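Hi P.,

Sorry for the delay on this. The queue was packed all week, but I finally got your sequence through. Input first:
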Amino acid sequence: MCGIAGLIRHDGAPVRREIIEGMCRRMIHRGPDDEGIHLDGPVGLGHRRLSIIDLASGHQPMSNEDGTVWVIFNGEIYNYRAIREELLAQGHRFRTQSDTEVIVHLYEDLGAGCVQRLEGMFGFAIWDARDRTLLLARDRLGIKPVYYLEQPDRLAFSSELRALRDLEGFDAKVDPQALHDFLTFRYTVAPLTMVQGIKKLPPGHLLTVKDGVVETREYWDLDFSKKLAMSEQDLIEEFARRLRDCTRSHLMSEVPLGVFLSGGMDSTVIAGLVAEIAGKRVKTFSVGFVGEEGTKWDERPYARLAAQRYETDHYELALTGRQYADGVRDMVAFMEEPMADPSAIPLYYIAKLASEHVTVILSGEGSDEALAGYSFHAHFRGFRRAAWFRRLPAALRDGLLRRLNDRWVRSPRVTRYLDIASQPASRQLQMTPPNMTWLFTEEGKRAVYGPAMQDAAVVASDLMLREAYRRAEPFELLDQMLYVYTKQWLPDDLLLKADKMTMAHSLELRVPFLDHTMMEFAASLPAEMKVRRNGGGEFTTKYILRKAMEKLVPKEILERSKLGFHVPIWRLFESDLREMAWDMLHSRRFEDTGLFKRDAIERLFEGEGTVRLDQWGLLWPLLVVAMWQDVFEVGV
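Then the structure:
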């Protein structure tokens, strides 16, 4: 796991070494073990290395035999040994045992098509000096980030936004559309970032630069249209075999390795499989929130149960409200742009603990998006509630109920259901975002905007979903939802958060459920293998996983409802976050940005320093934006 950075000038002027050195220096936490730079006239490549495989000879940038093709690589290629044997048989000569060198020689044979052969997580750049072409690639699911900045005279790229934001000659400013979308989804949606001009290369995409022409294209997409015609038992056995194989492939490492163990089914499955495959004691790590309500939000007892079952070396952390508040600034600093997912801070702390013992960590991330887990359930339940509102007479729904909500209930979620229900049926699903995590309505955003945003040319945030749902139209309802989760929520929230919070501590995260072969197999499963309807209108989610792993996972964990890492943020706004929210949102620096109106923010407080509890869901993203402005001072 590493950090990559580079620059290509369209005017042919040589790239100065100190520019690439500066980019690398800004992301040293991604690769504290080594640094390398390659310059070739108008092209500069830089690399920071976290040594995982081939510790002695894996230095980058790395080239082919004659030095005409160069690569910088962040990630892991899990099938590199098999590809290496094929390339050796074809006459390629290798100097190292690393997966990086496999990419170079595979590119020599297949060009940009080399990505189709790679199984793993990656963000890499290849400079082909033979035809003066730069290639950028991001893995299929978006596990590793790739940012780029395109200007008239150059294109720069990196694994970290900060390496581009601080480039000489670039004036970083807030992107109004990205901020508008953030207030809806709690994260920014690719390809935008919160910094205008800097973009994220979407998952499963390539970017090429040749003769000053920049082009992007998609090389992979998830197809739900082809369903397997197999018996239920055969599907269960095939799923179990594939998951074991993927987990085994993710264990390749020459450094210590462990597992995040939350106490939920997904991480327990991974911990159990790692313990079974590795044949030795595994290190596991858990975090729980402990506040005034005691252990209500603490899943560590279940994690301990799994640790005892698999005889792991178990480490855990109890996170207090004070520690949570103290971690907000660090979370914002390493995320690099606003992210209002409350679970990012516990992840930051548990990654720090794990990094003291291991260099590689596995997690159960992605199971819910592949197999319709709790995120699906919340989303589907919200869609069903909106459908209930739609069955009401329009006069009652859009008249009396809306007035009651506007005047007395004041629930953003009810407002959202009413908005969805008032639309034609063909538009309802497209208006329903992943996890129903609407923070502000379109009207609500306009009401709080200050002069810097009032006149901004932005479009409604639900438009960000329409293209994804349009592409998913041929699929059934469940698969449409899972497709949109996979294309937006997964890379722009869960995976970006996971990458940034672990790499903040030079810790490599691996996610076996998100091996693209597992995701393709999951997409080919009939809906009833993911979700089974029970009596009373309830559902059993991730059905195939429960059946395939019922002998591995303790019954107490297999049958419990998933909580996820839940932080009672509304309680923290009564205590540990209250003073911070008041100070940050009333600071002169934040007010001077002109992004929000002071009087609108005042209405979120009952009095000086006292938060209205029905407004915490709006205060939290505003606090994150204010903290981001305080840390990075991005212009408006």
